[in-house]
């Protein structure tokens, strides 16, 4: 790592803009005590007292503008360490204490060299392509939340498919692969869980409970409840009320 220059007292007044230049593969670390905007090529990034920037751009100019209402004092380091980053590299998520340590004189560039190179190599490490099978369609996550929130309303597989804009068969297959259960089974599980709670309250009739958990038909509700719990709703209620005596 070879430090080309350091600066700690560059002041930009409100609205002031300066154009700076870099050589090929040079890195620039910039810290500001006020809001500034750095622009090069198609990248526009705002920095502030808590967010510093580290970037490397192809040879040429970049601009720095103070977009706050107060003077901005800039600190920074221009250096080269032989690493070529991806095109138009800019990061605000990195260990800035290494660079601040150099600026304040607590450490030398040579002392921080290996750590900074390791940091840059880690940032520049190619990301392993994600396997298609590991990708979750965000619509399925959205649908899962929708079912949890609206399980107590009448919903069919077609209704759920229409909600996310897909074919019912596609929805059933993809949802099952991600959540290991079909959307309708998940819907009914939520309804049955809620029904058990309501059945413990004798103030509600079986018909009212069926409607409260999203069924238009008492017979359908009773059939499904027995399939899940091996008891009819009435039998389940009797058992629960006996336990309360």
What is the topology?
Layout: E1 2-12, E2 17-22, E3 27-32, E4 36-40, E5 43-47, E6 53-56, E7 60-66, E8 72-80, E9 89-91, H1 97-103, H2 109-123, H3 138-150, H4 157-164, H5 168-179, H6 183-199, H7 206-212, H8 218-229, H9 233-244
Antiparallel strand pairs: 1-8, 2-7, 3-6, 3-8, 4-5, 4-7, 6-9
In short:
The chain is of the alpha+beta class.
Q: Can you put this structure into words, describing what you see?
A:
The structure is a single chain. The protein is of the alpha+beta class. It is built from 9 helices and 9 strands. It has helices at residues 97-103, 109-123, 138-150, 157-164, 168-179, 183-199, 206-212, 218-229, 233-244; strands at 2-12, 17-22, 27-32, 36-40, 43-47, 53-56, 60-66, 72-80, 89-91. The strands form 2 sheets. It has a 5-stranded antiparallel β-sheet, with no helix packed on it. The radius of gyration is 31 Å and the shape is elongated.
């Amino acid at each position: 790592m070879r430090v080309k220059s350091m600066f700690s007292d560059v002041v930009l007044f409100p609205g002031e803009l300066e154009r700076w230049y870099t050589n090929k593969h040079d890195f620039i670390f910039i810290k500001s005590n006020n809001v500034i905007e750095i622009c090069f090529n198609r990248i526009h990034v705002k920095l502030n007292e808590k967010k510093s920037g580290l970037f490397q751009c192809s040879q040429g100019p970049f601009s720095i503008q103070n977009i706050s209402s107060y003077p901005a004092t800039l600190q920074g380091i221009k250096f080269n360490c032989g690493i070529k980053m991806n095109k138009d590299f800019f990061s605000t998520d990195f260990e800035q204490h290494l660079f601040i340590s150099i600026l304040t004189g607590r450490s030398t560039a040579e002392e921080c060299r290996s750590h900074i190179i390791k940091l840059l190599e880690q940032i520049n490490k190619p990301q392993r392509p994600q396997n298609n099978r590991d990708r979750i369609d965000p619509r399925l996550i959205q649908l899962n939340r929708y079912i949890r929130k609206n399980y107590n309303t009448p919903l069919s597989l077609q209704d759920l498919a229409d909600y996310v804009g897909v074919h019912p068969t596609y929805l059933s297959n993809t949802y099952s692969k991600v959540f290991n259960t079909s959307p309708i089974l998940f819907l009914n599980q939520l309804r049955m869980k809620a029904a058990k709670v309501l059945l413990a309250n004798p103030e509600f009739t079986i018909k009212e409970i069926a409607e409260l958990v999203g069924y238009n038909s008492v017979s359908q509700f009773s059939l499904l409840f027995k399939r899940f719990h091996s008891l009819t709703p009435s039998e389940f209620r009797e058992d629960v009320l006996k336990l309360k005596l």
